[in-house]
What does this fold into?
Amino acid sequence: MRKLQDKKEEQEKKIAVIEEVADNIYSIKFILQSIGYEVTSVSSRDSYQPMLKEFLPDLIIIDMMIAGGGGYDAIRQLGKSSLKKVPILAITAEAMEGKEEDVYQAGGQDTLCKPYSVQDLKKKLKKWLA
It folds into this structure.
């Protein structure tokens, strides 16, 4: 019974993914949807704000290496928008390890380093969507 309730709560949660690499979008969307979340994604940095304002996510997952100003700029922009209270989980490359403080200063709430496991992702989701 508890598992059914968990699934229902997850289905009520919305996650937006901002990512440039199509394969990465596909894989994270597949994982999130298989868990039971409603997911939308955008690969173009220029089009994410209108989509997010319409979708009204409970969590935003953003790849820090997106083009056109990068993830830091996108996080700062989100912090100035109507979505400023939505938690942001920044996906970072292993090479960026130790840059977590930069993510927090930009306005992100948490980081997840690539490559990550599904269990690592689930822990972050539980932390921010519980």
Summary: The chain has a mean pLDDT of 85. The chain is about 45% helix and 20% strand. The first strand starts at residue 14 and ends at 18. Strands lie at 14-18, 38-42, 59-63, 88-92, 110-113.
